[in-house]
Amino acid sequence: MDNPTTISRLLPAEHLVIGLKARTLEEALGQLIERLDEADQITDRAALDALVADEIESGEAPSLGDRAILMHFRTDAVDELVVAVGTANKPFAFAPDDSPEADLLILILTPRTATRPYLKTLAALSEFLADPAIPDALVSADSVDEFLDVVASRDLVIRPELTVRDLMSRDVHAVSPETLLSEALRLMARHRRRGVPVVSDNGEVLGMVTEQELLQHFLPQILGTAPRDGSPPPVKDLEVRDVMQRSVMCLPEDQLISDVLGTMLTERVSQFPVVKEGKLVGFLSRTDLIQKLLEKSI
User: Fold this and answer.
1) What PROSITE patterns does the annotation carry (predicted)?
2) What's residue 129's pLDDT?
């Protein structure tokens, strides 16, 4: 199992500058970018420098707390999210001239497509710096080792975005189009499922049979006129192919659970086959999702 991403893992020693020698934000950023470039984290320095120059000219510099400035750039000049931090013995100013000074600079660079990792990293850093004692201790650190000791003392896990793969059931109960409805009903009752996927011989999802189809078929027959001897009326069986839903929403393994939750609410869908390369590999129901989210939160 992969080790969880923490703030300390995002801040190796080679991404830190203790004692920034900068009078302005532009100079401070330049030193952090130079440090990342030396660590081979930047693939297109010229493009990044141009992006930074445009941002500095805009005069916008969001803060995290009273003394920390955050600069974030979405750019193709990096292949993955990277974070650099610098501290200054003397606060540096930034445009516009009447903006407050800062002595802690955080730089986050993310690829253009990595919005969610950035948001989770930003949330973790905001929580980390919420205690005023932490920025004070970071800026007071005289060395990289002292800085990292402060980080380790309050380290936080940056929780990954959950995907369908994390919560889906891999114990999939499927039927073929030729399966009798009565057998599908028994299968659903045995495994407490409100529906089962219908698959071809090679595992391709062809449809779904749910409680709705079963009720629509069996209930009118069961409620029909009973024979004179009082025995239940005979139930005419059909094959799944005769009543299954043929338009089915399937999920890929790597779909974000946050997106699935939105679909459940807007589309009123409560269960999904999960596919990989067109083949059934799992199943995700609303019940599965709730139970497993509760397990992960305890």
Assistant:
1) CBS, PTS_EIIA_TYPE_2
2) 87
